[in-house]
Amino acid sequence: MSNQPTGVTQEHAILTRHLGSVQDRVSRLLCDKESELQTLSSEVVRLRGLLVLSRTSMLWGLSAPLMRVGRRPAMLPSLEQPTAARQEDLEASRKAICQTGCTGHAHHWLSDEGQCRWSGRPCDAGCG
User: Fold this and answer.
1) 1, 18, 22, 118: least buried by Cβ within 10 Å?
2) What separation in angstroms does the CA of 119 have from each of 39, 88, 97, 113?
3) What is the pTM of this model?
4) Please, which residues have CB within 8 angstroms of residue 99's CB and are 6 or more apart in sequence?
5) In a 3-state reduction of DSSP, which class is residue 13?
6) From the DSSP assignment, how many helices (H) and strands (E) are in the chain?
7) Contact, 109 vs 117, CB < 8 A?
């Protein structure tokens, strides 16, 4: 018997090397697909958040922030917008918080004097 591989032994060695390379390739493809799945999953979560923000703004009558669909974060209104527009947005936000957080929960922010404990202003919900 010689140390040289015979036909069957040589074919077995070739097939085993080929199987090893196929397994490596499949492992790399699985890793790539897992990474792509993670990226797409995080984008789905981000887009769902934007959808909730957009629908909530629309249903509550608030000015919706400028949004850009893509793989980058949403573009929110910049701080350089005019002061009057910012004040209107802040006032609309304050009213929405008052409506849902206080009026909708038995006025827990309302003091005995009719003063809002949250904002320090007189209650403008018509109840105090």
Assistant:
1) 1
2) 41, 16, 10, 14
3) 0.40
4) 125
5) helix
6) 2, 0
7) yes
Q: Which SS3 state, helix, strand or coil, does residue 110 take?
A: strand
pLDDT for the residue 81: 53
Q: What are phi and psi of 101, to 5 degrees?
A: -85, -25
Phi-psi region of 126 (alpha: psi -120 to 50; beta: other; left: phi over 0): left
The 10 Å Cβ neighbour count of residue 110 is: 19
Name 115's bridge partners.
122
Give the whole-angstrom CA distance, residue 66 versus residue 89: 13
- The sign of the torsion formed by the CA atoms of 87, 88, 91, 92 equals negative
DSSP 61: T
Range in 39-43, 56-60, 90-94, 103-107 with the lowest mean pLDDT: 103-107
**Could you give the 3-state DSSP secondary structure of residue 116?**
strand
Q: Cβ distance 50 to 67 under 8 Å?
A: yes
Q: Which residue has the tokens 């981000």?
A: 46
